[in-house]
Amino acid sequence: MAGTRITNLQSTVKPGIQAPQRSTATQGAVQMRIKNSPSSGDRLSQSKSMVLQETDLPQKPVDLKGEIMNMAKISDSGKKQRKNWSSVWTVLTSDQLMFYKDKQETGLKPGGKADVLQLCGAFIEWNTEKSSRKNVFQIKTSTGSEYLVQTDSYSTASKWYDAIKKTVDSSTKEGFPLRRSNSTDYLPRHSSLPGYGSASPGVKQRNPIHRRSINMFGSSKLKHSASDSADKNGVKNRLKKFIIRRPSMKTLQEKGLIKDRVFGCHLSSLCEREGTTVPKFVRICVDAVEKRGLEADGIYRVSGNLATIQKLRFLVDEEEDLDLEHSQWEDVHVVTGALKMFFRELPEPLFPFRFFQPFVEAIKIKEPKQKVQAVKKLIQQLPKPNHDTMKLLFSHLHKVLAFSRKNLMSTQGIGIVFGPTLMWPELDAGNMAVNMVYQNQIVEFILTESQEIFNLDGK
Q1: H or E segment and range at residue 89
Q2: Measured between alpha carbons, how far is 355 from 224 in angstroms, rounded to an integer?
Q3: Per mean pLDDT, which range of 125-134, 149-158, 220-229 is the poorest?
Q4: How many whole angstroms separate alpha carbon 92 and alpha carbon 67?
Q5: How many CB atoms lie within 10 A of CB 130?
Q6: What is the number of helices (H) and of strands (E) in the chain?
Q7: 301: alpha, beta or left, given left = phi > 0 and alpha = psi -120 to 50?
Q8: Phi and psi of 162, rounded to 5°?
Q9: What is the pTM of this model?
Q10: 20 vs 360: which has the higher pLDDT
Q11: Region of residue 121 (left: phi > 0; alpha: psi -120 to 50; beta: else)
Q12: Mean pLDDT of 425-440
């Protein structure tokens, strides 16, 4: 009786609750299908093109809520603009970089007084050519606008650079989610995925107009690139022809189209052209200051009017007759400002580049007499124009120091003014603050020991 009940229950079990046992023939067919089916590795490789790689996944952007940075807009939609640096309150979101005049304006909507940069499709890189400032990076948006961003702290600049770059990469990849980084193909046109092709019955097909618009966009892009390439080749050919036909520098100088300058000219070249070992402009300025400016308050420390200094520089470069006794140069600070500008604009400083480190090592010597002899030996090794110009200048500064009670200029004050004016390293790879300390100390020491170093008593 029990056996009969169990048999009846088994016969009433519905399919899906317990799978019916297959016959031997059915099991053999299943085994054949398993043996002939692709391996898991093959199946993975076949579907790999349909799966986004890990590197294709958008990185999580980094939001920086706000910090004071320096910004200069140098291009607006491809049109160059004058570079004007300004301090701005900078905010980074998931797809935008915003510059506000101050922190209180962060509540403004985009389009107000804030500059809003859309980072999708933007380009960012470190830049050392478009600004003399340190820690500068450039951002170029997809619309052709260009910005320079800078801060004196390298760690802060690096933090913002990395965060903006991650945001640019993230927002750009989100704009093209089906594109594989290691492939040039889109997903196949005919596919079993819903919405692609008619392989799956009853599934609505993707609008063919959309696909056609993509193809039209791609072809126009290729045509545009080809035309750009042709234009660039044409410009290159014209430039090559112009360079071949251009006259030499000597010819332009003989025709008077290009004149030799005084400011920005190599010291040796200027002295050779003038037939002297000290530039005439340096002598004229020194004589003028010693005649009527040794007692001027803050001489060489107080700045003169920059426009007047530039006017004086223009006259000197044009080789016009210069009379510093004229009333327009009555402010002696204009003369001292022009003299400092002359030394700052030398392509190679009065202390030549190759002598920078030897002077630094000499100033580190603790024994006074050895230090004097080391510095004196280095100065004697300088080229003749550098040596004679330096001797004249330090002899003049020694006279300025003699009137320190009236002009309020100390040895330290003169060192601070002329340290970075007379010497700087060729490559500013070290610590700028440390270099400035050595520059000031070297000028102070030479000024203090100028009579011994240059034999000023015997002249």
Answers
A1: strand 86-92
A2: 54
A3: 220-229
A4: 10
A5: 13
A6: 17, 8
A7: alpha
A8: -65, -40
A9: 0.48
A10: 360
A11: left
A12: 81
